[in-house]
Amino acid sequence: CSRAEESTSHMFFECGVTDCVWKTCYSWIDLATVLPADPSNHFQQMPISISSKKNSERWKVLWSVVVYNVWMMRNNIRFKGGRLEIQKCIQEIKNDTWRWLSLNKQFRYNYTQWQADPGGCIMDGEVKDKKEEIQRSIREIVGDWWNI
C-alpha cells in the first residue's frame, strides 16, 4: 500500500487493504473482531464460535489461503505492475479455499454452495445453531424480566 514500511505484520495484518480482506472472511461466519497484528497471534486466534476440530481445520486452510493470496496480490502489484483489486483477491481466496477443502472427502459442499455461503460451509452449521441457542437464551432472560 506504500503507506508504511513493508513488514510481515503490516503486509499481512495491519494494512488497510489486508484488513478489509480479513474482515470480509470473518464476516462469512458473522463475526466482527479486532485482529492481532502479530502473525503468530493472528494464526492462533480462532473465532470462538468454531468449536469442532473439523471446522477449526477448515478455518486454518482459509487462513493460509488468505496469506498466500495477499502475498500473490502484493507481488503482482510490485513486480508486474498489477492493480489493487480487493474483490478479485477475495474471489481468488474463495476459489482456492474451496479447491483445498474439497480434496477432503468429509467436505460435502459443492462449488455453488461454497460460493453462496462459504461461512456456512466452513462452520458446517455451527454458527446457525449457536445463533439460535443465543436467541433462545435471550428470549428466556427477557421473558423472565418482563414477567417480574
Care to describe what's here?
This protein is an all-alpha fold and 148 residues long. It has one domain (8-123). 69% of the residues lie in helices and 0% in strands. It is built from eight helices and no strands. The protein has helices at 8-14, 16-27, 39-44, 53-80, 86-101, 111-116, 118-123, 126-146. Helix 1 (8-14) packs across helix 2 (16-27) and helix 4 (53-80) crosses helix 5. The radius of gyration is 18 Å and the shape is globular. It starts with 7 loop residues before the first helix and ends with a helix. The model has no long low-confidence stretch (mean pLDDT 84). It comes from Cajanus cajan (Pigeon pea). This is Reverse transcriptase zinc-binding domain-containing protein.
Give the SSE layout.
Blueprint (H helix, E strand, L loop, with lengths): L7 H7 L1 H12 L11 H6 L8 H28 L5 H16 L9 H6 L1 H6 L2 H21 L2
Helix pairs in contact: 1-2, 4-5
